[in-house]
Recover the amino acids of this structure.
């Protein structure tokens, strides 16, 4: 009996390589941060180009949320407001081969702009894919929303709107 449970657990958990979710609208404030030259210089290193001055929000649920929590944990971000089962499940996800890239914060005119952690990825929708990065800000209210950055405006390039299903494949 125990070996059957273990086999089921091994199939359910494993190495993280993909997140699937639904495109959703954000607060519309990311452009304030994304347009900062200090960040753009770092995004050029991560993406190979400057980033579109905004993020694409992708809502994740169930096992995709568990996978995202594992990435957040790797970035050092607590997810205390997530359900206990999701946080526990995240401890069984192997993210060791996924490289995290630190985005340094800075101070400008007495205003603090926080740091973040980025993970290189590819976003896909209906057979079209574009290089991107998952960005996890050090300070964020989102627990179940993945913020995605890319050189092009993703909604236009992938022809997606709120409600569209996308896949994020992480580089490892």
């Amino acid at each position: 009996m125990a070996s059957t449970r273990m086999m089921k657990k091994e199939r359910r958990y494993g190495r993280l390589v993909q997140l699937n979710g639904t495109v959703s609208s954000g607060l519309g404030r990311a452009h304030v941060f994304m347009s900062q030259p200090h960040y753009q210089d770092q995004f050029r290193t991560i993406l190979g180009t400057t980033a579109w001055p905004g993020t694409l929000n992708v809502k994740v649920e169930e096992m995709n949320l568990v996978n995202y929590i594992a990435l957040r944990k790797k970035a050092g971000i607590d997810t205390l407001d997530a359900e206990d089962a999701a946080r526990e499940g995240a401890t069984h996800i192997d993210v060791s081969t996924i490289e995290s890239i630190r985005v340094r914060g800075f101070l400008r005119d007495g205003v603090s702009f926080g740091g973040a952690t980025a993970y290189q990825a590819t976003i896909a929708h209906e057979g079209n894919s574009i290089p991107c990065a998952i960005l996890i800000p050090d300070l964020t209210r989102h627990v179940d929303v993945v913020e995605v950055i890319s050189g092009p405006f993703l909604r236009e390039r992938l022809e997606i709107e709120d409600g569209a299903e996308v896949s994020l494949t992480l580089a490892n």
Summary: The longest strand covers residues 116-125. The domain at 17-62+96-170 is CATH 2.40.30.30 (Elongation Factor Tu (Ef-tu); domain 3). The chain has one domain: 17-62+96-170. Residues 1-12 have pLDDT under 50 and may be disordered.
